[in-house]
Specification:
By secondary structure, this protein is of the alpha+beta class. Helix content is about 40%, strand content about 20%. It is built from twelve helices and nine strands. The strands form two sheets. Strands 2-3-1-4-5 form a five-stranded mixed sheet. The longest helix has 21 residues, at about 195-215.
């Protein structure tokens, strides 16, 4: 076990926390890959030799330092590769590292549903299940040609390798991108899709307002859905053009939510994060000559002036969509 997948239990709106926590991880190894909004992959191959401790022992030290220095707990999965560390994280709990050793990989993954494999979306999982390949063990046992006919040649080979425990991924050091986030928690685990959509509308309007106040635009949007069992699903989409337009952010958030195909999911919180921020003056948007779109943009300008003069509650959430 040389790779850790760490998820910090921090408020998504705390913009300064993740870079500081990444700095903590870099005290152990320079090979750290940020996974916004709240996680990272850590390659400890050199650290194990340097500190004379294995990955699980180092994970315990990381957890203690995170709590002591920043008051932030974390969940950690450990495995011989990034894919297996991510999968192990799903079984982790605060205070307990979920670890998969190299000689227990087959046993660990064979009973997992195909949807547990990172990169397998709802549509791919549905296709595989329709043909009885509902677990990774069954996918691994199926002929490669069969899997390729179902999901395509390249994707089929990649899926078949991963189902057999072959993890060719690596940790790529990067810097956390400049971003803004907003969270919409529910007072109770929420099943109603209409309430989910209203929360997304409110979050997208909040992001748009904050971006315009900072004279920034974003090039991507990330949606994180947190469930009652503490698991989560994260999807990121690149926008057609950088924007701070609330209507575009809302449509993109709705599209990502619908693509998840949630069926009576007990949702605890929804988080939207605007990624890859850049100055608005360095960007432009394609004129649509759509009078409705132009009207919405003018209303946004008026609403922004009202908020600046009378405070953030001057315009009720959802008013621009009415």
């Amino acid at each position: 076990m040389t790779i850790l997948c760490v998820r910090f239990q921090l408020p998504p709106t705390d913009e300064a926390a993740l870079p500081q926590l990444l700095g903590l991880l870099e005290e152990f190894t320079p090979v750290v890959e940020a996974l916004p909004p709240d996680g990272a992959l850590v390659d400890l191959r050199g650290a194990e030799r340097y500190f004379g401790r294995d990955a699980v022992e180092l994970a315990a030290v990381i957890r203690v330092r995170s709590l002591a220095l920043y008051g932030v707990d974390c969940m950690i999965g450990a495995g011989p590769g990034p894919m297996l560390a991510r999968m192990a994280l799903r079984d982790a709990r605060p205070g307990v590292t979920s670890a998969v050793s190299a000689d227990a990989v087959r046993e660990f993954i064979e009973e997992k549903p195909v949807s547990a494999l990172p990169g397998v979306g709802t549509a791919t999982a549905r296709t595989l299940c329709e043909y009885g390949l509902d677990t990774l063990g069954r996918v691994a046992a199926a002929p490669l040609s069969t899997v390729q006919r179902l999901v395509g040649a390249k994707a089929g080979r990649d899926l078949h390798e991963k189902a057999n425990g072959i993890d060719r991924g690596r940790v790529v050091p990067n810097a956390v991108s400049r971003s803004l986030a907003t969270e919409r928690p529910f007072t109770r685990d929420e099943l109603d899709p209409d309430r989910h959509r209203r929360a997304l509308l409110s979050a997208a309007e909040d992001l748009g307002t904050r971006l315009r106040a900072l004279d920034k635009v974003c090039a991507g949007l990330t949606l994180t859905v947190r469930y009652a069992d503490r698991s989560s699903t994260t999807r990121t989409r690149t926008l057609k053009e950088p924007t701070a337009h609330s209507a575009v952010l809302t449509r993109t958030a709705y599209d990502m939510y619908e693509a998840l195909g949630l069926q009576r999911a007990r949702v605890r919180a929804l988080t939207l994060r605007a990624e890859s921020l850049r100055p608005a003056e360095h960007s432009s948007y394609q004129l649509t000559f759509d009078p409705v779109d132009e009207k919405v943009r003018r209303i946004e300008e008026v609403a922004d002036r009202a908020r600046a003069k009378f405070g953030p509650r001057a315009v009720m959430p959802g008013a621009l969509a009415a």
